[in-house]
Design brief:
The protein is of the alpha/beta class and 159 residues long. It has one domain: Uracil-DNA Glycosylase, subunit E. It is built from seven helices and six strands. It starts with a strand and ends with a helix.
């Protein structure tokens, strides 16, 4: 099981979909190739240590064959995530991909469209961007992701 990690008092909380093989083996979120890219975004782009944010996923166990979590799997874990959000109480949530968007906010739309808006969850500002694994498959997403991250940083007064 991979619950999450980071600063329990973080201003920024990233939420992905679920652990992959590397995460399953280490018990830590976002440590595989997509996680290494997320760390670069945080440390090189945002200029803050990864340890200052909190990182979690919709599901806490690795879905077979790295597929997207099924709705019933997400529903089994969503209570844990909601409690994590309540405990950390971040100023900003950054949802990484459509699985996080659908399961936390109940919104089913393309990330391209979802990026155009900001949302709220329990009074917390929510930004949506592509999952880092999408960037590994398509480098054209790098600029849009950076634009989304900058929106969150501006909201927090980091720019």
């Amino acid at each position: 099981m991979v619950f999450g990690e980071g600063n329990p008092n973080a201003d920024i909380m990233f939420i992905g979909e679920g652990p992959g093989e590397d995460e399953d083996m280490t018990g830590r979120p976002f440590v595989g190739k997509a996680g290494q890219l997320l760390t670069k975004i945080i440390e090189n782009g945002m200029k803050i240590p990864r340890e200052t944010v909190y990182i979690a996923n919709i599901v806490k166990c690795r879905p077979p064959a790295n597929r997207d979590p099924m709705p019933d799997e997400a529903q089994c874990c969503i209570g844990f995530l909601k409690e994590q959000i309540k405990i950390v109480n971040p100023k900003v949530l950054i949802l990484l991909g459509k699985v996080a968007l659908k399961n936390l906010l109940g919104i089913e739309t393309a990330i391209t469209k979802a990026r155009e808006s900001t949302y709220e969850y329990e009074g917390i500002k929510v930004f949506v961007t592509y999952h880092p694994s999408a960037l590994l498959r398509n480098e054209a997403y790098k600029r849009p992701v950076w634009e989304d991250i900058k929106k969150a940083m501006k909201y927090l007064g980091m720019m």
